Amino acid sequence: MTRLTVLPHDECCPEGAVIEAEEGKSICRNLVENDIELDHACGMVCACTTCHVIVREGFASLNSPGEDEEDMLDMAWGLEPNSRLGCQAIVGKTPLVVEIPQYSINLAREGQKK
Prior knowledge:
Blueprint: E1 2-6, E2 17-21, H1 27-33, E3 52-57, H2 67-73, E4 83-85, E5 96-99
Parallel strand pairs: 1-5
Antiparallel strand pairs: 1-2, 3-4, 3-5
């Protein structure tokens, strides 16, 4: 198990959290399984940007992003050099600190269906 620290986020984690994340699982899966409701509108298949996280510590220890993830990240709100899609970033042995951006582009949650 690896320590995963989530910085405070007004809606989904107001006080922040520290969880024991399972190695080999994505950041998103680990958060959701620990009752931290990170958006994942596409079902964690790299088809949206709602699970966008900013990795404040431990970024270099993550698996490299694939081309599909890099293409999707270009559309994420608040993109930073250490941004990842939580559904694609796989937890390893190195402790992580992640920040959930204040906003995401989630048309389904906002009631805007195509």
